[in-house]
């Protein structure tokens, strides 16, 4: 008769163990999909996850991290001269495989990152365009204004 040994080493037929404490826990995994900004130097700065207090270096793209079933606190950020793109999420994989976590680094280093169980866009594009566009427009206006004033004299 097939079965498993418990306690005093008597064979117990499969399926009779009903206590969740007696059933072995199967290791599962957390999937974190990271996204860098288009055209960035993201290869120089890679994200880092802190999962339940343990630091896990990540790569850009899909990352599969072995994790026991449970509730996991995930904090993701990037490091340049300071930590930026900070984002937090809680993942529960006690009863089923956890949904993938999507993280996107921001366009500027003083903006929070985006994180969700659904795909996310890189936050801060409008701020980035204003940050780059306004000074560029001022320089262009000065050049054009100088050329116009020079041609009239």
Protein model, in words:
It is rod-shaped and about 80 Å long. Helices cover 18% and strands 37% of the residues. The strands form three sheets. Strands 6-3-9-10 form a four-stranded mixed beta sheet, with no helix packed on it. A four-stranded antiparallel beta sheet has the order 5-4-7-8, with no helix packed on it. The protein has one helix at residues 125-152; strands at 4-6, 10-12, 28-35, 47-51, 54-57, 61-67, 71-79, 83-92, 101-104, 114-116. Mean pLDDT is 79; it is low at 1-22. The chain has a single domain, classed as Immunoglobulin-like (Sandwich). It is of the alpha+beta class and 153 residues long. It has one helix and ten strands.
Write the layout of secondary structure elements.
Elements (H helix, E strand, L loop, with lengths): L3 E3 L3 E3 L15 E8 L11 E5 L2 E4 L3 E7 L3 E9 L3 E10 L8 E4 L9 E3 L8 H28 L1
Parallel strand pairs: 3-9
Antiparallel strand pairs: 1-2, 3-6, 4-5, 4-7, 7-8, 9-10
Describe this protein with a few key phrases.
153 residues; alpha+beta; Immunoglobulin-like; 4-stranded mixed β-sheet; 4-stranded antiparallel β-sheet; 1 helix; 10 strands; 18% helix; disordered N terminus
């Amino acid at each position: 008769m097939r079965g498993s040994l418990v306690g005093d080493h008597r064979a117990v037929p499969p399926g009779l163990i009903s206590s969740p404490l007696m059933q072995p826990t199967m290791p599962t995994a957390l999937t974190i999909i990271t996204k860098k900004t288009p055209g960035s130097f993201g290869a120089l700065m890679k994200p880092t996850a802190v999962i339940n207090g343990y630091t896990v270096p990540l790569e850009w793209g899909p990352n599969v991290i072995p994790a026991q079933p449970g509730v996991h606190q995930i904090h993701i950020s990037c490091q340049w001269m300071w930590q930026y793109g900070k984002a937090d999420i809680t993942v529960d994989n006690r009863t089923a495989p956890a949904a993938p976590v999507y993280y996107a680094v921001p366009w500027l280093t003083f903006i929070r990152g985006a994180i969700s169980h659904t795909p996310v866009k890189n936050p801060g594009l409008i701020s980035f365009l204003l940050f780059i566009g306004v000074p560029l427009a001022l320089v262009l206006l000065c050049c054009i204004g100088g050329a116009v004033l020079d041609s009239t004299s």
